[in-house]
Design brief:
disordered N terminus
């Protein structure tokens, strides 16, 4: 588990990582914005900076995401695709899903209602 905290904003973002059947599942809780984008980017890859080949990002605990989050996911998608892997988003709450749909990320990165569905897709 990785806690990403800013001064005066404790528990702003929490990221948990686990491996399920060889797939890296990253569960994110909290707001995704400019203040946490770099730390979130680091939490989505291995400690040595390499990108896992198959990733599910569970956003069910994310009530808000701005364009910084979009940029993180587009960059991650490009890195995973370059490695012949895939990225899936799971559980995005309505406000976050709407942002993903408005900018067309959902046509680039498959979005699933739950992490279980993303894992079995």
């Amino acid at each position: 588990m990785t806690d990403i905290q800013q001064a005066g904003r404790p528990n702003r973002l929490n990221v948990e990582r686990q491996v399920v059947d060889g797939i890296h599942v990253v569960t994110v809780r909290g707001e995704i914005d400019h203040d946490v984008k770099d730390a979130l980017s680091k939490a989505l890859v291995f400690e040595d900076g390499t990108v896992p080949p198959r990733i599910v990002v569970d956003l069910s605990g994310v009530p808000f995401m701005d364009s910084s989050g979009i940029n993180v996911f587009v960059t991650l998608f490009q890195q995973v695709s370059d490695a012949d892997g895939w990225l899936r988003i799971a559980g995005a709450q309505e406000p976050v899903l709407r942002i993903l749909q408005l900018v067309g990320i959902d046509s680039l990165i498959p979005c699933h209602p739950t992490a279980e569905q993303a894992l079995s897709a």
